Amino acid sequence: FKDQFIVSSPEIFVQIKDGKICTFPMKGTIDAEIPDAENVILAIKKETAEHYNDCGFATE
Predict the structure, then answer these.
(1) Element (H or E) spanning 38, and its range?
(2) CA dist., res. 34 & res. 27, Å (int)
(3) Which of 9, 16, 35, 41 could link 30 by a cystine bridge, Cβ 3.0 to 4.6 Å?
């Protein structure tokens, strides 16, 4: 594929527009600059449920 790549996701991860490449965080990410970021994201029930679901799907 040389200078091409493929991403399979319903979310926009990379966008190339007008010669600029923009990346976007995937779900389940948080800005590491946020104080106590790890505990903040782990306290969000929606996030932990999505990760639990994703891990269960990946192990089937």
Answers:
(1) helix 37-42
(2) 16
(3) 41
Instruction: Provide the token pair at 27.
Output: 């779900």
Domain ranges of the chain: 14-59
Cβ atoms within 10 Å, residue 30: 14
11-24 in b/e form (b: 16+ CB < 10 A) is: eeeeeeeeeeeeee
What stretch of H or E contains 17?
strand 14-17
Least Cα distance to 55 among 28, 31, 25 occurs for 28
Task: Write out pLDDT tens, residues 27-58.
Answer: 667 888 999 998 998 898 988 888 777 776 65
Token pair for 12: 């926009």
